[in-house]
Specification:
The protein is an alpha/beta fold. The protein folds into two domains: 151 residues, Rossmann fold (3-Layer(aba) Sandwich), CATH 3.40.50.1220; 86 residues, SIR2/SIRT2 'Small Domain'. Helix content is 40%, strand content 17%. It has eleven helices and nine strands. Helix 10 links the parallel strand 7 and strand 8. It binds adenosine-5-diphosphoribose. Adenosine-5-diphosphoribose (APR) binds next to helix 2.
Length: 248
Amino acid sequence: MDEVLDALAAEIRSADGTVALTGAGVSAPSGVPTFRGEDGIWERFDQRDFHFRRFQADPAGFWADRVDLRAAMLGDGDVSPNAAHEALAAMETTGHVDGVVTQNVDGLHQRAGTERVVELHGSNREVECVDCEARQPAGPVVERARGGERPPTCDCGGVLKPAVVLFGESMPDDPLLEAYDLLGGADVVLAVGSSLTVQPAAGLPKRAQQSGAALAVINLESTPVSGRAEYDIRADVTEALPALADRV
Ligand code: APR
């Protein structure tokens, strides 16, 4: 891995811009389970229960399952950034990384200090009202739902929804446009800790390569774009990213 990291670091140093595209594998070392693979979330929960149509048809049942899913993902809630998050934040501080486009909703990139974070799938730290669109912290609302208020409602009477993009829900334009803008200007894209199987994130690496960027995939397993990546690094993110940050 040393030689490929040396070459990637040299390319980042000479690049006008490098952007990271991250997935659940970056948060896995913090104890947040991934979605796919052995012991993945979708091995334990039925993805259909968290579809936007289910939320619309049965918000009470959706929230009952959502409380359990959140507990499975966040445990007793003390997840913290790991060395991979910190390495990306350090590379942003030194000007080697322009920002992070993430599929993760846990806010760990921001807590590690990364300033420019585009959350493609929203945030699990807030809920929003489907009527007045007011947002509020998710924690107390999840506790109300756990206590039986299902679905939890806004002061205006509207039903509250986690501020994440559900399957079947249209992506908000702003994060996607910001991701296109950030990635469009990158000479190097680091696709890190993602199976790259869910659109639109899955299509972003190829789009960046078509714009002339060099693609580095850093992931434990192969991904659909690993074969065409300039750098295919099969490694743990908590080893590869700090080692890369040390080299740039
Ligand atoms: N180091 C490197 N790679 C890792 C590590 C690690 N420590 N741990 C896991 N991985 C890799 C796995 O091999 C897998 O390929 O991270 C990837 C995680 O893939 P997924 O679980 O599919 O997560 P992600 O790609 O982020 O899923 C995308 O799917 O369910 C939706 O909205 C959800 O945002 C999520 C989206």
